[in-house]
């Protein structure tokens, strides 16, 4: 046990989880690689929970942060802030939401918190629809709508939450249906639910569930939901904290796989846009965003330094077509991983889109979750020089693969080979 680990245990909460039996301290990174305090080099397939979106130590972002910090670091939203206005203009245009307004926060949790405040105020209802197996953050209200008991330490909440089917395609009561029948069944379930309650404020949904193990419904499910929701005046909040900015390859936003009924009323974002800096936010039409009738500011949301980082990062992402790279390299990687998985009885499914890939593990010969197996693969991969994540919800154990979007074909092949060895070692 390292001295730093001992000190960590002495002053930080027991529930502040660490990966690995012997936790590592990451000291620096470059591109798609990081190094620990012992000098070990790792290929990073997790990006600090999908946050280092473009690359570690990206010169364009580092330069923007340094230059802005040399001018002024903080002023708050009580003063005009050029980098904040410039980033808001770009995000509003990219969002697809008409007459969009943007409010910046410091995290995805705070972004979802803000969206819930706006929805409940606009609709004058504290009822929220959420998806089973969902995760939306660790604030009191976000925990209250999270549909994953592993990340929901209390049932107390300022909101009444009703959970809807559809976020998990290959498990649950509708798993055996084809995509069209699955969607129809989930829509009928939603209609039935709405027939029993007062109209809720909003449905909040991740287009691809992150912490829940990179699960997703068939394309078009949320478009079908939206048609029903609009009949009742219920808003749709798309939680894009993990799916935004082109990570799925095929789309810039996850909601665009469900676009037949138009864009969401609100979308929330965070993680990747800052490439490690603390940026979150909400996009909503002016009518929704401006519904608050009391003062509100953000002390740290939209800070000049984080906004400068976000602008530089977004510019790099777009100019280098990292969405296209996620589609191309991610497509190769998922097919390679499916070929690897075919060798192991303990792999139930390899799923995902772009550079957002999940490998669901089960106890060999069964359909039961295998959390011990997931932990063993995580350890074996680290020993082989690869960092990955894990997740899952009710009865699932999933390895989470989400490298920076600048991943090369050679690095994808290297990571897949390491995962193959780690799966073999963990059998």
If you had to describe this structure to a student in words, what would you say it looks like?
This protein has 13 helices and 15 strands. By secondary structure, the chain is an alpha/beta fold. The longest helix is centred in the C-terminal third of the chain and has 20 residues, at 322-341. The mean pLDDT is 97.
What are the salient characteristics of this protein?
alpha/beta; seven-stranded mixed sheet; 13 helices; 427 residues; four-stranded mixed sheet; 37% helix
Question: What's the structural blueprint in terms of helices and strands?
Answer:
Layout: H1 3-11, E1 26-30, E2 33-36, E3 41-44, H2 47-50, H3 59-71, H4 82-95, E4 100-105, H5 108-123, E5 127-131, H6 140-145, E6 160-164, H7 179-194, E7 202-205, H8 221-231, E8 235-239, E9 266-269, E10 280-285, H9 286-289, H10 304-319, H11 322-341, E11 347-353, E12 356-361, H12 371-383, E13 386-387, E14 389-391, E15 397-401, H13 409-426
Parallel strand pairs: 3-13, 5-6, 5-7, 7-8, 8-9
Antiparallel strand pairs: 1-2, 2-3, 4-10, 9-10, 11-12, 12-15, 14-15
Helix pairs in contact: 3-10, 4-10, 7-8, 11-13, 12-13
The count of helical stretches stands at: 13
Mean pLDDT: 97
Shape: globular
Distance between the termini: 27 Å
Radius of gyration: 21 Å
* Series of secondary-structure elements, N-terminal to C-terminal: HEEEHHHEHEHEHEHEEEHHHEEHEEEH
Q: Summarize the main sheet.
A: 7 strands, mixed
Which structural category do the helix and sheet elements fall into? alpha/beta
What is the strand content?
Answer: 15-25%
| Overall helicity | 25-40%
Topology, number of strands: 15
Strand order of the largest sheet: 4-10-9-8-7-5-6
Q: What is the quaternary state of this protein?
A: single chain
Parts with pLDDT < 50 across at least 5 consecutive residues:
none
